[in-house]
Amino acid sequence: MRDGEKFQQFHLEPTVKHGGGHLMFWGCMTWKGLGYGCQIYDGTMNKHDYIQILDTTFKDTLELYGYHPGRFIFQHDNDSKHTAKVTKTYLHDTGIDVLPWPSQSADLNPIEHVWNYLKIQVGARENRPTSIHELWEAILVEWERVPLDFVRKLIESMPRCVAAVLEAKGGQTKY
Questions:
Q1: pLDDT band at residue 84, thresholds of 50, 70 and 90?
Q2: Band of the pLDDT at 18, cuts 50, 70, 90?
Q3: Cα separation values, 23 from 20, 41, 54, Å
Q4: 25, 38 contact by CB (below 8 A)
Q5: Which parts of the chain are beta strand (E)?
Q6: Among 17, 53, 104, 118, which residue carries the largest CB count within 10 Å?
Q7: pLDDT in tens, 122-167
Q8: Is 174 exposed, middle or buried (0-12, 13-18, 19+ CB in 10 A)?
């Protein structure tokens, strides 16, 4: 947890006596910087988990950076938990405007570049993680180190990405 971050149930750290596990990380980005992130401990997230994250971690990020509903546009993809009726209702009821999103559009999702950056940074560590706990700690450290100018360049690239996808008629682009 970051200093001043509110405690949430998903901040609890499970222990594993035998075997490994899966790590799923949820995070968001804004012009002002990366938001709070959280680990999804069983490696899966459903629509109710997603709404819980939006109502806690995402709201905490908005509060941190001084964003208010109606003053920003939220972007997520067409994953079923994002497009579920209950999720759409939650976003509508909380006044969060959502960017319309085409299907099959990984080329347009700037957070994918952040995930790739994290993967490279964690993989380049001298002492690579050997457990889920160590991997989580490494991801948290590297998440905090993602440069703001990198995040802003991703956001600034969105108009060019959209134009490239339109030019490619929905096909693959360099993005």
A1: very high
A2: very low
A3: 10, 6, 19
A4: yes
A5: 24-26, 29-30, 33-34, 38-40, 73-74, 97-98
A6: 53
A7: 999 999 888 888 999 999 999 999 999 999 999 999 888 888 878 8
A8: exposed
Ordered DSSP codes for 27-48: --EETTEE---EEETTS---HH
Domains and CATH numbers, the chain: 9-167 (3.30.420.10)
d(CA 90, CA 85): 9
| Measured torsion, CA atoms of residues 57, 77, 158, 94, in degrees rounded to the nearest 10 | -50
Give the HSE-up count for residue 161: Cα atoms under 13 Å, Cβ half-sphere. 14
Parallel/antiparallel/unpaired status of strands 33-34 and 38-40: unpaired
Tokens representing 109 are: 């999702």
Letter for the amino acid at 58? F
